[in-house]
Every structure is written in C-alpha cells, then in structure tokens.
Amino acid sequence: MIISCANQKGGTGKTSTTALVAYELAKKGKKILLIDCDPQTNLTQLMTKTAAAKDELLIIDHTLFGMLIKNIPLEKGIKPVMDNLDFIPAASDLNMFSRWLDKQKLTEKEKVTYLYNHIAPLENKYDLIFLDVSPTMSLLNDNVFMTCDYIVIMLQTQERSLNGARDFIWYLQSNLINQFHAKVNIVGVLPVLSKRGGSVDNEILAQAAYDLGDENIFKHKIMQMERVKRYDLTGITDVEKNRWDKETHEAYTQVAEEMLERINNGTFES
Ligand SMILES: Nc1ncnc2c1ncn2[C@@H]1O[C@H](COP(=O)(O)OP(=O)(O)OP(=O)(O)O)[C@@H](O)[C@H]1O
Ligand SMILES: [Mg+2]
After folding, report:
1. Which atom of ligand 1 lies nearest, measured to the CA of 232?
2. How far is ligand 2, taken at its centre, from the CA of residue 100, in Å?
3. d(Cα 161, Cα 8) in Å, to the nearest integer?
4. SS3 131
5. 89 C-alpha vs ligand 1 centroid, how far in Å?
6. How confident is the model over 90-112, as a mean pLDDT?
7. Ligand 1 in reach of 224 Cβ (< 6 A)
8. pLDDT score of 168 more than 80
9. Percent of the chain residues topping a pLDDT of 90
10. For residues 6 and 14, is the Cβ–Cβ distance under 8 A?
11. What distance in Å separates the CA atoms of residue 23 and residue 17, rounded to the nearest whole number?
C-alpha cells in the first residue's frame, strides 16, 4: 500500500506528518518504507538525524534520481532508520528528474508511470510505503501520485488554502484519474490548525466540512506543537519520560490510526 500526504501549498506539514505517522506505525509493528521524493530533501535530513539519534549512521551512496536514471533497483538505496522503518534518501539532483524524463523516448503513459515501475518491486516487502512530495505540480509529482494507492490531503486552516485543496482534488481527477486511469484514492482531508480554537481555523473547518463533506474531514487534527519543529534539529526523539515527546507521539499515533481506519473503511465520498 503506497501513501502520500499532499497538497499544492508549501510548508503545510507534509514532511513532518509523513515522518511521524510512519514512525508511529513502525513502532506499532508495521513494516514501513519512507521514500523522499522531494528535491528539497527535508525528509532525508530528518531521517538522517533520526537515525543518528539512534546511533545508526545513514550514509547516502545512492540517490533516488541516480538509481532511477541508471535503472539500479531501488532496493540498493534502502537505509535502515530503526526497527521496522526503512528509508530511501533523495538529493537535490532530483530537481532534474522531470526534465530528464520528459526527454526520454517514452509514451505519455510510460512517462507518468516511470517511478511506479521502479517502486513496484518493493511493494510486497512492506505493509506501507510513504512518499514525501514537494508542493509543486510537475512530472515528478504526477509520477508520485500515479504510484500512490492513497493520498491524504493536508489542509492548512488559513485563508485560500481550501481553494488549494479543491484545486488539488480537481487536478488529480481531471489529469491523472481521467487521463491515465490512476488508481489513487483520497483517504480524507487532514486539517493542520494554525491555532488551537482560532476563529479563522474554525470557519475554514466549517466551510471544508460543508464543501467537501464532513465525513471526509479527519476527526483528529494536527495541532501546533513546538516539539515537531525541534525534531528538525534533533531528529525524532522518543524519551518515554519526556512530556513533550509523549504528547507529540500520542497526537500523531491518533492521526496514524485514523488514517488506517479510513483506508479500511473505504475512502473519500464526493
Ligand atoms: N504540528 C506542527 N507543529 C509545529 N510545527 C510544525 C508542525 N508540523 C510541521 N511543523 C513545522 O512547520 C514547518 C513546515 O513543515 P513541513 O516541512 O513538514 O511542511 P511541508 O508541507 O513538508 O513543506 P514543503 O511544502 O516545503 O515540503 C517545519 O519547520 C516544521 O518543523
Ligand atoms: Mg516537505
């Protein structure tokens, strides 16, 4: 099962949510692979630090782009981060993927499914594979979405972001599902709150429930937590006696559980 947390807007918590949800599921015994599909490489940095915090040295010998263009099996690039959690890193060379792929003598369909064909051999080795994406519309991201079975739409509760979520759903439907028969399903809309109980947040949540269907909005929301920002510096830490670690992991565990429940119960209804 291949999943991505996505939207068109930058800085909405895609990478942090992907990393933490994957982390919580790995802790619960699911076998997880994370793949950094964003040339900004934020997930690679976070996972390198998380592995180091667990005394696991993560040395990057193969980048995702390097393996893709040389037809090296992606299995060769897998790095262990901790029990049940593996990772494939990216570097900024991934910026060249869309242009490189566009120049290949391939059909349109072959171009949008190029990544999937490389990831498919790994599918049965893991319970879940998470792909971290950049906030752009590109041939690279089309490849990511064509690879996914499920997409979680991140909705930052700020002005105009609801339009972004709508546009994104429309883009998936009209470009990838209608044109290339993408298998992708939308798991639901996961709100990222800018302020606990903020009035703008509540108004946008109400509007989202009205527009997109209340049942499609995650009950568990992503709250602002200083600890998540700290993880960018320290890697993900998990000290049992630390109140902030505990609170953060509990919050993302709830989101992870709701994600799996939604997948099991059928997805987005429009
Ligand atoms: N729940 C949270 N509480 C507080 N800060 C958060 C939370 N989630 C993410 N952040 C912080 O917000 C910033 C953006 O988060 P993140 O990198 O996950 O977003 P993104 O959507 O992946 O960004 P991009 O679109 O650039 O890939 C980071 O500094 C991150 O530490
Ligand atoms: Mg990101």
Report:
1. 31
2. 22
3. 9
4. strand
5. 18
6. 96
7. yes
8. yes
9. 81
10. yes
11. 10
The confidence band for 270, taking pLDDT boundaries of 50, 70 and 90, is: low
232 lines ligand 1 (CB under 6 A): yes
Q: What is the chain's mean pLDDT, rounded?
A: 93
User: CB pairs under 8 A, 24+ apart, for 199-206?
Assistant: 200/157, 200/158, 200/159, 201/157, 204/155, 204/157, 204/158, 204/159, 204/161, 204/162, 205/157
Instruction: Read off φ and ψ for residue 192, nearest 5 degrees.
Output: -115, 105
Q: Whose CA is nearest to atom 13 of ligand 1?
A: 11
The pLDDT of 156-179, averaged and rounded, is 88
Q: Are strands 185-192 and 79-82 parallel, antiparallel or unpaired?
A: unpaired
∠ Cα 218 221 224 (to 5°): 160
Domain range summary for the chain, segments of one domain joined by +: 2-264
Please return the burial class of 194, using the count of CB atoms within 10 Å of its CB with bins 0-12, 13-18 and 19+. Answer: middle
The answer, yes or no, to whether any atom of ligand 1 lies below 6 A from the CB of 236, is: no
Average pLDDT over residues 101-108: 96
Helix, strand or coil for residue 126? coil
Q: For residue 3, give both structure tokens.
A: 């999943």
d(CA 215, CA 204): 15
* 44-58, 127-141, 186-200: least confident range: 186-200
Which ligand approaches the C-alpha of residue 9 most closely? 1
Q: CATH number of the domain at 2-264, out of 3.40.50.300, 3.20.20.70, 3.40.50.2020, 3.90.1150.10?
A: 3.40.50.300
User: Is the pLDDT score of 267 beyond 70?
Assistant: no
State pTM to two decimals.
0.96
